[in-house]
Design brief:
257 residues, FAD/NAD(P)-binding domain, eight-stranded mixed beta sheet, three-stranded antiparallel beta sheet, 11 strands, binds ligand 48F
């Protein structure tokens, strides 16, 4: 049978439209497709929650792909190894408490397992603002990343969510937006963004988990964004804290939903 270009076009438009329309009202909206966001999305979807993830770039995986300084291996400590195992990512013990995994296998598997668990991903979209009611984040304001990159003057669209998770990494972009619009009201010690501190891997990994929490009503932080918001150090290419943080925020939201 002859292949018809217009049918191809219609199939893509119809299917994407279905996906968009089905995700205008969510239990959880996740911003950023790095390891913490993907792991959070996996556990939320697995628990049957309606969850979508928005990623500015073409591909999910954030800082995982490049390992450490483009040496494409990542390190995960023992506490987070069960998460690698659950995803089916192969790892090898290097020394007691240090496991390594191929960073390309890790990024691609986080991505594929999260989608297969039921997470919906919208790539090439940037979150530029939140929907807000008095003292409550209620959803996200979205635009195409290409619009953002070209600096075009085009209004965004909005989705509603019971909870938003900022997993945008070092830039902690959603928290930054909220902070600019309602300064001094974050649930941090000072009410401000405390700011990320210099490298201290051991402390950072513990603090990533402690700092994974609600930062403004309706808005949670996880992954590196948690430390950037609450003032923890960076940890470099050890990823256990990211994975455990994604799992922690998912469990907390599952219990609240
Ligand atoms: O930075 P990223 O991988 O976040 P993470 O899950 O993991 C951090 C580690 O990769 C590493 C580290 C641990 O050793 O420190 O850096 O905390 O992924 C963040 C993702 O969010 C996307 C960005 O493109 C990246 O893929 N992102 C950032 N801002 C936006 C966004 C935005 N406004 N809208 C959509 N996506």
């Amino acid at each position: 049978m002859e292949i018809n270009e217009v049918v191809i076009t219609k199939a893509i438009i119809d299917r994407y439209y279905e996906k968009l329309m089905a995700n205008l009202e969510l239990d959880v909206a996740i911003v950023g497709g790095g390891p913490s966001g993907l792991v959070a999305g996996y556990y939320l979807a697995k628990a049957g929650k309606k969850v979508a993830l928005y990623e500015r770039k073409l591909s999910m995986g954030g800082g995982v792909w490049g390992g450490g300084m483009m040496f494409n291996e990542i390190v995960v400590q023992e506490a987070a190894k069960p998460i690698l195992d659950e995803f089916g990512i192969r790892s090898r013990e290097y020394e007691k408490n240090y496991f390594t995994a191929d960073s390309v296998e890790s990024a691609s598997t986080f991505c594929s397992k999260a989608l297969q668990a039921g997470l919906t991903v919208f790539n090439c979209m940037s979150v530029e603002d939140v929907m807000m009611r008095t003292d409550q984040v209620m959803g996200l304001v979205l635009n195409w990343s290409s619009v953002e990159m070209a600096g075009l003057h085009i209004d965004p669209l909005t989705v509603r969510a019971k909870f938003v998770i900022d997993t945008t990494g070092h830039a902690t972009e959603v928290v930054n937006v909220v902070y600019k619009k309602v300064p001094g009201r974050l649930m941090t010690p000072t009410g401000e963004i405390e700011g990320e501190k210099s490298m201290w891997s051991d402390k950072a990994e513990t603090l990533t988990l402690e700092n994974t929490k609600e930062v403004f009503p309706g808005l949670y932080v996880a992954g590196m964004a948690a430390n950037a918001t609450f003032g923890g150090p960076r940890m470099g290419p050890i990823f256990g804290g990211m994975l455990l943080s994604g799992k922690k925020v998912a469990e907390e939201l599952i219990s609240r939903l």
